[in-house]
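Hello again, I could really use a second opinion on something today. I owe you a coffee for this, so here goes:
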Amino acid sequence: MYPIRVAKKYDPNNLKSTSHLYTTVYLGTYISDDFLEGNGSHPGVDMIPQTSGADVYAVLDGVVVTAGENGTSGKHVVIRHDRAPDPDDLSQTEALYSSYLHLSQITTETGAIVTEGTRIGATGTTGISTGEHLHFQIDRESAPYHPYWPYSTAEASAAGYGFLEAVNAGLGLEKAKTYTINPLVYLDAVEAHHSTHLADSATDTDVHIAADARSDSTTFPDVPESHPYATAVYALRDRGVVSGNGGMFYPENNVSRAELVKMVFNAGDIPIEGEGLHLFHDVPDDAWYTPYVNTAKLRGVVLGYDDGTFRPNNPVTRVEWLKIIINTFHPAVLPAISASGFSDVSMDLWYAPYAEYALKNNLMNFSGNQFLAEKFLTRAETASAIWTMMGMMGRV
């Protein structure tokens, strides 16, 4: 979906007819009668809303990494999409970053998990802006920062241009091509790919059910038997440790902090404690996860943040995940390590023993010799690791 509602789709072959909707095109210029892509180095698309203060939506599932304001972008939001369809091969995935600039209002916050269609703000004219519009762009993960701009003020000045004039001259065009993608063309391609894939999946599912005489009540349509973590997902499902949502498991979604403590405590048969206690500012008394969060706090499995919050909806990083699951199943203090098996984990880091424990016990798949401490965990990866840990503890 597009970040705002539009009257007509973005068509690279017919941009002049939609110049009132898309005033600056991808890799275009700020010149009023220039509608050709590649004539400049503008790394996104400037979109004109149908009404002032129009709703702005997240275009894909992801995590908000920036929700703030500065003098250039004004009020803006940046969302990381860890498993977005790869622009070069939509059947594969890669991390991308979408940016929404010059907002009048932000309705999300850094760390929030959003899904496609989540309202994140409203169009405006904050920052460097000559009129109300939404600057929308999508960066590749390899971009040095997000939102990416293909030159600095110093580079524009050295080339003899003002900051905005440099766009018209195409300064940094090759870098823009390297680190950004044509955002609306990409979203249209993703939508078309999903439509085709869903149609094919429906056909495949009909055949599979007919052949195996199974109903959707016994399996998750998004976790086929061929899925690498299917065994763990269904084993935990059968034990009441995990469940689906609307018949789906959503294996590639990031697991939240609240979901994790519930899954881990259910798997470990941990008795629930602390009913009626209010231990974190952002954990309401009547939330489904409150008993699990309180238990985790009382048992020392989690401490929370310095501001007195738990942030239940935040996605879980590998570091956080390891501390929670290992402290639950293996409460004894882990021994210090004499050497690290990861190139990005030094022995003096507090989580080094946890990382080494995970490596030696094959709790998750690692990328080469890197631990990637801040990488988020998916629901499927979490299920696999919990199932492995249950086996180590003799609970299977």
User: Anything to note?
Assistant: The chain has ten helices and ten strands. The chain has two domains: 16-188, 230-392. The beta strands are 22-24, 45-47, 55-57, 62-70, 74-86, 89-106, 113-114, 119-123, 134-140, 180-181. Residues 197-217 have pLDDT under 50 and may be disordered.
